[in-house]
Amino acid sequence: xxxxxxxxxxxxxxxxxxxxxxxxxxxxxxxxxxxxxxxxxxxxxxxxxxxxxxxxxxxxxxxxxxxxxxxxxxxxxxxxxxxxxxxxxxxxxxxxxxxxxxxxxxxxxxxxxxxxxxxxxxxxxxxxxxxxxxxxxxxxxxxxxxxxxxxxxxxxxxxxxxxxxxxxxxxxxxxxxxxxxxxxxxxxxxxxxxxxxxxxxxxxxxxx
Length: 208
Prior knowledge:
By secondary structure, this protein is of the alpha+beta class. About 35% of the residues lie in helices and about 20% in strands. A 7-stranded antiparallel β-sheet has the order 1-2-3-7-6-5-4, sandwiched between helices.
């Protein structure tokens, strides 16, 4: 009889070294993760030293009133009772149709009595303003001008106003400045113009 086949023999020897393969796989995986993390960091990281705050647009500068304040010393004398009008002389602007350069409003005497000093772009605008205020109103004075020591200063008007009681307004010949007194009574408007506010003479007012 024939011999049976010999049993299959286990091959003896050293086991396969699989750890280098595992190590390389781990390192490759870590490299991929690290790369993804770097991309995410670069994408999301804050930019140090650089402000991300959006700066709002600067507000328009208020009208420059230095010339107006130098012209009318009464403004400085009244201190906190005076304030820059913003927008400058809105009522005056509506009357004349041109925007005033600057205006300062002061509270004087009794409550409800105010004086507004206005600087206009031109002397013609100032003259038109006094004329416009007087238009359609009955004047309480016989002459349409005002004087200091007998010398004419410029146009003037005082009369009733449906909004404030009485108005007293005037300007200077050839000058860009006007004043406006608003008061609840005629006596208050007249006294404020004559003795309460300190108005400079025309030669002390800047020409132009």
